Amino acid sequence: MHPSQIVLYLSLLIVLGPVVLSEQETQQQQQQQQQQQQPSATSPEDTELCATCEVRQQIKTMRLNAIKSQILSKLRMKEAPNISRDIVKQLLPKAPPLQQLLDQYDVLGDDNRDVVMEEDDEHAITETIMMMATEPEPVVQVDGEPRCCFFSFTQKIQANRIVRAQLWVHLRASDEATTVFLQISRLMPVTDGNGHIHIRSLKIDVNAGVGSWQSIDVKQVLSVWLRQPETNWGIQINAFDSRGNDLAVTSAEPGEDGLQPFMEVKISEGPKRVRRDSGLDCDENSPESRCCRYPLTVDFEDFGWDWIIAPKRYKANYCSGECEYMHLQKYPHTHLVNKANPRGSAGPCCTPTKMSPINMLYFNRKEQIIYGKIPSMVVDRCGCS
Question: Distance between CA atoms of 128 and 369, rounded to whole angstroms?
Answer without folding.
Answer: 8
